[in-house]
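Regression test case RT-17, inverse folding.

Input:
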């Protein structure tokens, strides 16, 4: 494929250009620039033995008999020392604009109702142009392991499995707070992808609103369901497996593909093969299986692109949205193979210089080798 081609993301509806002929965009982050770590610190606050550097844990896997907030843990979750949201209820309690009681209004409209947004706040909910509200929520840090490891693929399969199991445990725990609408779970690896501490960790930010990209996906998925009666992700998985060109790797229950319309070259999506609306329903065994697959495909990415910075993030149904038939959780792996500039930030339009089919074949070759 030499001529530029426009492609539409089947879920979010975003258009991108695949332009392999456009050799080396000026802002392409070259292979010769592997991810650099955040500036090193004298004492890593995430290492075993430095527990007093972080707030008290809310979840941990510990050796029997070890005391909370001391050594003896395998994985640890606690509040972020620099939270973007505040955990205290505003005093006096302030109702969130557009919410009745707890969760965001109309968090999921039935997909059969045409023209009705999903997760949208009806305009009648707002009487003011400049809305604001107290930033109530939860910000947590999940430290993957006690030893100072900066590359998640260096975790053992068992350790990575515990990370994916902990995502489920925290989602389930945070869902009990009806004031929260959504939990964003993500990992930043490398300074270019926003990591400020090198020690491998994930972040969870629970919000009183459904974030925009989730809302866009929910809307797109509801439209697809209204038109076809099918979950767009189930259909995508079926077609990708049948075609194979963008399949990077698969297991009994999961598949990793390069995105049809990526924002960055080598962008990958990892999806359950069967319909799963909520990540919370993942079993321990499936979490281990997912972890092994993610580890392999990220290692292949590191091989092919010489360890780029990347983010991975979990997209799952909002907390109090039930079990939507049209939405399907997935993990997106977003390598920083280019630096977003005016076109991307200002218009949400991306140019990608490696076709996803070529990216998938390179990743498969790395996995085989
Ligand atoms: Zn450390
Ligand atoms: Zn599905
Ligand atoms: Zn997504």
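Golden output:
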């Amino acid at each position: 494929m030499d001529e530029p081609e426009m492609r539409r993301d089947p879920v979010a509806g975003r258009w991108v250009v695949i332009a392999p002929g456009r050799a080396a965009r000026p802002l392409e982050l070259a292979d010769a620039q592997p991810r650099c770590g955040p500036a090193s610190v004298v004492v890593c606050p995430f290492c075993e033995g430095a527990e007093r550097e972080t707030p008290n844990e809310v979840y941990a896997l510990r050796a029997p008999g070890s005391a909370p907030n001391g050594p003896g843990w395998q994985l640890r979750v606690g509040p972020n020392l620099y939270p973007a949201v505040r955990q205290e209820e505003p005093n006096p309690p302030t109702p969130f604009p557009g919410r009745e009681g707890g969760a965001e209004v109309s968090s999921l409209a039935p997909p059969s109702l045409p023209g009705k947004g999903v997760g949208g706040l009806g305009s009648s909910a707002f009487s003011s142009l400049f809305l604001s509200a107290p930033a109530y929520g939860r910000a947590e840090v999940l430290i993957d392991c006690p030893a100072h490891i900066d590359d998640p693929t260096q975790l053992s399969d068992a350790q990575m499995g515990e990370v994916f199991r902990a995502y489920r445990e925290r989602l389930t725990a945070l869902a009990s707070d009806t004031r929260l609408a959504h939990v964003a779970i993500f990992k930043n690896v490398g300074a270019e992808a926003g990591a400020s501490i090198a020690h491998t960790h994930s972040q969870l930010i629970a919000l009183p609103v459904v974030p925009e990209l989730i809302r866009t996906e929910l809307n797109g998925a509801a439209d697809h369901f209204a038109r076809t009666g099918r979950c767009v992700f189930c259909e995508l998985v079926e077609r990708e497996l049948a075609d194979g060109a963008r399949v990077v790797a698969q297991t009994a229950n999961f598949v990793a593909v390069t995105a049809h319309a990526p924002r960055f070259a080598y962008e990958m999506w990892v999806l359950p093969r069967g319909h799963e609306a909520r990540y919370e329903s993942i079993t321990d065994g499936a979490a281990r299986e997912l972890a092994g697959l993610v580890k392999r495909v990220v290692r292949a990415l590191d091989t092919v692109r010489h360890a780029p910075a990347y983010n991975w993030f979990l997209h799952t149904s909002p907390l109090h949205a039930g079990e939507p038939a049209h939405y399907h959780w997935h993990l997106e792996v977003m390598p920083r193979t280019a630096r977003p500039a005016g076109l991307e930030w200002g218009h949400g339009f991306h140019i990608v210089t490696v076709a996803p089919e070529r990216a998938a074949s390179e990743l498969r070759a790395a996995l085989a080798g």
